[in-house]
Design brief:
alpha+beta; Serum Albumin, Chain A, Domain 1; globular; 18% strand; 23 strands; 7-stranded antiparallel sheet; 2 domains
């Protein structure tokens, strides 16, 4: 258990963040707040919340490896970042050990045993709005706790109790809200109230403010059960009982049998090369790795460095690649345990050459000429990603989520956590888009115990056989394109990792047939040139919130995190 000095330290750091400090030194750790890149010798943690990053760095400083730190960060995020950090959701991990061994862990949620292919359709076969994204029927069987236990059993080194204790301390002793988290809590008040049969701790009429202390005793008790009993502390006993009771009260269908039979899966990553780099990423049921490799393979045919970053030529080509890749995603990708996903075909060089052969430099392709479909909107999502490298260059990229912000909004009050709304990531009906505007087909149809398709793209790059980059982001359908651009920014446009993260990004996902670009992200001349090529342009807010680590030429580690949120890199020296 961490001592009182540690508890004082994390609270002190939190208040320093709230006062907008730029630098902080804490023993052997160096923190850079608001996303300014830092360099450290003996470890790097980048995550969506400064306290979670500090927890991970503390584990590294006390002799833990990257995987120990990842487990501690995951549980800490469940406390301080409840809109996406979780014990009621799921996710994916890609790891690479210092000796070059690599692998991936699928702790994605599953459909309950009582789920049916048409469960979100009415008697006429029409999809019932919001049924798959709001309330208890939207909840998939959580995978996060099982995933962390699997990760620990395979790769952990410190005592497991030590890795969960920082999260317990944060929940039990309290932590101050950042400005951004207070706004997030307030924005979700109405939907949280509607989804639950009583007011929850998080509901206070929208009066949360910066610096408010958040104390979560029920969550602390749930975490203690996990600390002391491992997997059984969540999937059986008091927490499981509370979850199943909540389902019964609010119309959900997850049973104790669903919890008993949930198990995460170690999978073989998808891998490929892009110029001088080896790319290791998440396989199905994530679409991220396949789509990223398709985009990078397609990019090899062009000299993006010559075109220039965010030039009309670069954006046009990226868009044309993206529209074809996302159309393939809608057609071919799903849970490989239920559907023969054509990964080898999708990454075949000849297939991709033919797929991209009709790209023209002088005009856009109409998305309906690639594949039929209709989507009118692209909505945002609430996911979180963290990247960690230790002193020996063991590395891990984890993307985890509840799906929408605060997931289904259903709160297991007696145990203090929100449940996911991952069932919306299935195809409620073939060709009908989900809440993020993504279309799916039969490969992603609902079936009992099936894992839903995802866009999460935790990724590791090697160069000359050595670790080079660990990267990932939240962002729903924009995850794939954000990771793609971060990789391109470093490898093609010569940016360091923080510059790559700070750079304005664009997004196209086949349907709707438009290019999203970040606020004030493109020169007016570039916009005009793209419109002349036939593209429809739409300005948006943030696209992705990347957290990444790169290995510099001298072996030191540079951490980068998005400055537009509470993302923070903490290095160990």
């Amino acid at each position: 258990m961490f001592n009182k000095n540690w508890q004082k330290l994390i609270i002190g750091i939190a208040f320093a963040i709230l006062l907008a400090a730029c630098n902080s030194e804490s023993g052997s750790k160096a923190m850079l707040i608001s996303g300014r890149g830092i360099v450290a010798e003996n470890g790097m943690v980048t995550s969506a919340h400064p306290l979670a990053s500090e927890v991970g760095a503390q584990i590294l400083a006390e002799g833990g490896n990257a995987y120990d730190a990842a487990i501690a960060v995951h549980f800490a995020l469940a406390v301080v970042y409840p809109g996406a950090g979780n014990i009621g959701g799921g996710g994916f991990a890609v790891y690479r050990k210092a000796d070059g061994e690599y692998g991936s862990l699928d702790f994605r949620e599953k459909a309950p045993k009582s789920a049916t292919e048409t469960m979100y359709q009415d008697d006429k076969g029409d999809v019932i709005p919001r049924l798959s994204s709001f309330g208890s029927l939207a909840v998939g069987v959580p995978g996060s706790v099982d995933g962390m236990m699997q990760l620990y059993e395979k790769l952990g080194s410190l005592p497991f109790k030590k890795l969960v204790q920082p999260a317990i301390d944060l929940a039990e002793n309290g932590f101050p809200l950042t400005e951004k988290e207070a706004r997030k809590y307030n924005r979700s008040q109405e939907s949280i109230l509607l989804a639950n049969d009583s007011t929850t701790y998080y509901y206070n009429g929208g009066k949360w403010k910066t610096g408010d202390m958040v104390v979560l005793p029920e969550l602390a008790e749930a975490l203690k059960l996990i600390r002391d009993n491992g997997r059984d502390g969540f999937y059986t006993g008091e927490t499981a009982k509370n979850l199943v009771e909540e389902m019964a009260k609010t119309g959900g269908i997850i049973s104790q049998e669903d919890l008993d039979d949930y198990h995460s899966v170690w999978r073989t990553p998808v891998e490929g090369t892009f110029r001088d780099y080896k790319v290791i990423s998440m396989p199905p049921p994530s679409s991220g790795g396949v789509a990223l490799l398709q985009l990078l393979k397609g990019s090899e045919a062009y000299n993006f460095g010559e075109f220039g970053h965010n030039s009309a030529k670069s954006i046009h080509l990226m868009t044309e690649l993206e529209r074809r890749v996302y159309a393939d995603r809608a057609t071919y990708l799903g849970d490989p345990d239920f559907y023969d996903v054509p990964v080898k075909m999708s990454l075949d060089r000849n297939y991709l050459k033919g797929r991209f052969a009709d790209i023209r430099m002088d005009a856009k392709t109409d998305s309906h000429d690639i594949k039929e479909g209709e989507v009118e909107v692209i909505e945002s999502t609430e996911t979180t990603h963290f990247s960690i490298v230790d002193k020996d260059h063991n590395a891990i990229a984890i993307t985890t989520t509840l799906n929408g912000i605060f997931g289904s909004k259903v709160y297991v009050e007696k145990s203090g956590f929100f449940l996911n709304n991952e069932m919306d990531d299935f195809s409620a009906k073939t060709g009908v888009p989900n809440q993020f505007g993504l279309v799916g087909g039969e490969a992603n149809a609902i079936a009992p115990e099936k894992r839903m398709l995802s866009s999460m793209t935790p990724t590791i790059l090697e160069k000359d056989g050595e670790l080079f980059m660990v990267v990932g982001t939240p962002g729903g359908s924009t995850i794939i394109t954000s990771v793609y651009q971060a990789v391109m920014n470093v490898t093609e446009f010569g940016m360091d990792i923080q510059e790559a993260i700070n750079a304005k990004k664009t997004h196209h996902q086949w349907l709707p047939d438009l290019i999203l670009y970040e606020n004030k992200g493109l020169d007016s001349t570039v916009i005009q040139q793209l419109e002349q090529l036939g593209h429809t342009m739409q300005e948006r807010g943030t696209l992705g919130q990347l957290n990444a680590v790169t290995v510099l030429s001298d072996g030191s580690l540079q951490g980068g995190s998005d400055p537009r949120a509470d993302n923070t890199a903490v290095g160990v020296n």
